[in-house]
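About this split. The held-out portion is used to measure sequence recovery: a designer receives only the structure tokens and must propose an amino acid at every position. Recovery is the fraction of positions where the proposal matches the reference. Here is one held-out target exactly as it appears in the evaluation file.
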């Protein structure tokens, strides 16, 4: 079926645009399936592919190293930890691989004294760290950093957490295998919060169709 947004698509352009419109409105798969008349499994497959593309776009813009998604999604049932960095009026996220999360969580527990944390250089690139186990944001200072601990996390990061609170703290994602996709979706939505997300996504898939 001809569809300029999706290679070898089995749904029409009109149906795909509807999926994107309802996705932009932050509806879930069940709601989108009911509104489009598509099978829920079909909708779920497209939503995963859409989120994977968003993940790729965000990673390419990230100041952090690029972890393979397959590695990040191996949580072993552990609650994730992710770093946050303010870049202008945007926030970049970095999901900590499970191999490092246990060590970082121990550092957080050892240093969690109510003030800003002073952590080793390997994690000093973050402005804050969120531990989904404790549902807590830790403000950071690096070794030798003279920043005021009270200002370790800026207002943009607080705005990001407020923006994502419903998705990241209320939905049961802490031990799912797709936490990384949802985290990057939050980042993408927040960083484009003043734009028409529907038109932005259509442009993205028109220029580079889903494969």
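Reference sequence for scoring:
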């Amino acid at each position: 079926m001809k569809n300029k947004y999706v290679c070898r698509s089995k749904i029409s352009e009109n149906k795909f645009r509807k999926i994107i419109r309802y996705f932009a409105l932050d509806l879930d798969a069940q709601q989108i399936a009911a509104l489009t008349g598509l099978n829920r499994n079909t909708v779920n497959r497209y939503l995963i592919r859409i989120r994977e593309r968003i993940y790729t776009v965000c990673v390419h813009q990230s100041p952090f190293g690029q972890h393979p998604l397959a590695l990040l999604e191996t949580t072993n049932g552990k609650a994730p930890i992710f770093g946050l960095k303010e870049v202008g009026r945007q926030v970049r996220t970095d999901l900590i691989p499970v191999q490092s999360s246990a060590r970082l969580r121990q550092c957080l527990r050892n240093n969690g004294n109510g003030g800003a944390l002073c952590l080793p250089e390997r994690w000093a690139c973050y402005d804050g760290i969120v531990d989904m186990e404790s549902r807590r944001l830790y403000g950071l200072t690096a070794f030798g950093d003279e920043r005021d601990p009270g200002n370790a996390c800026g207002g943009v990061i607080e705005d990001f957490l407020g923006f994502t609170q419903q998705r990241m703290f209320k939905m049961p994602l802490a031990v799912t295998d797709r936490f990384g996709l949802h985290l990057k979706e939050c980042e993408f939505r927040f960083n484009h919060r003043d734009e028409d997300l529907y038109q932005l996504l259509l442009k993205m898939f028109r220029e580079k169709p889903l494969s």
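Annotator remark: Strands lie at 81-87, 90-95, 117-119, 128-131, 136-142.
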